[in-house]
Amino acid sequence: MTLRLTSFLCFLTYVVQAGSLTDWPKYWILFKDKDQTTSPALSPASIARRQAQNLSLDDTDRPVSAEYIALLQRQGVTSINKSRWLNAVSARLSAEQYAKVATLPCVAGIQTIDPAIIITSIGDQNGKIKPHMAPVMTQIQASDFAQAGLTGRFVTVGVIDAGFFGADSANALKHVFARDGVKRVRDYVNEKKTRSDLFRTLETTSDFHGTEVLAAIAGDDPTEKMQYGLATDATFYLARTDQGNREYRGEEDNWVAAMEWMDSLGVRLINTSLGYAKGMSNPKENYEPSQMDGHTSLISRAAQIAADKKGILIIVSAGNEGDDRSWRIISTPADAQGVLAIGATNSRLWNRIGYSSIGPESLPYLKPNVSCFSLYGTSLSAPVITGFAACIMQANPKLTNKEVMAIIEKSSHLYPYGNNYVGYGVPQASRAITLLRNQPLATTARQIKASGKAFVVPVSTDESVVSVFHKKDATHVLQQEATKVSNGKVTLRRSSGETQTTIDLKKEVIEVVWE
Where do transmembrane segments lie in this chain (predicted)? Predict the structure, then answer.
């Protein structure tokens, strides 16, 4: 972008005074109001999507005031990203600039942007996707969707991630590119990059991450006879919003900008296998676990706006901090009520795999929402459920984002007895299809009463070992354990403070209420 001479001279002045611009902290500058004479910056497809869902256009669709942006420029401040949803711009500020901007009458506030984003990267470096995703296809009953002809066709999917290196040459994704299934790409880290650069230029090993996520949504490798994702016929819009090493990376403002770009194009379903937690260069600016409340972080507020006002279904990885005793809980924006947060299970018992983040007990709603198998991180369980959602949206395009979310939850194997370890459990395609047909689900859940310190429950299962969740209340887990089935019975031993226990038989769930 070409700067005006006056802004450029101001820029040089501040560089001399405060060092390199890139060393300055990045902030959100939030404005008080908008220019009501401007029109919403939306495509016809986006406006049609809103009308179809009976969602009206509002002030969050108007652009940020050009007058306010010009005012910042006169202060030597160049905006990086603009958010019409948050009515804000992001910018790097020196201490002197911060003090001046904070006093401007149009500024409602300034907030630090957390540069730390936690992801999981698992791929090899030759563009070939490893086959470890295959077991989840059996777990979620992928063949039932295939038999119903549901492959995500006519559904647009946005993927916001760290990089898509080798996506156009990966065996599992060749079918997507052969039919021109990736319509547009955008690099918010380096806007000078072309579409070819995004797929062919490797800056860090994290640039494989988005490729692996895309394969978990739509991957299918006929040479290995291996299906990796459910939405093999969906249409994709890709955005790279982060750069860095394997674990810590970010740019929260890029994420919001990518969300708004996809909304303007009419995208209804977005996968983001990224989450903000901690890792700030200045530890005083880290998020605290208590701030994972669905409304403290601006990224969660933006996600909630997308869910409530834009009709977008956002599917987010819950986080990989389950083994981190200093954190343990989900990251943001998985904490937003309106998003579908996905945890990870192990492959045998379908209970929480150790690294998968749990839901904070302080939340008045359930997180994670659902879970499925992933050996290497919730970054790859979330895209599996994104493919699941695409199949539902193909079957009934008139469903709202919240209706799709409800079907996914109700199709899960523990429903209605969810918990903050795995949510409602693993979504089942057969149950989702039944719900799409408005047919009654088979009864797979029952509740029984128990008393004393131990209780024997007769069960009908072919499993020799089942998962048991000991809970302090209806949703919050004290501990999970693997329990043997002996002569068709499960013996429960009540823990201190335990009021309810969930016995997970996969095909049936039994909720024990202690008296």
Answer: none
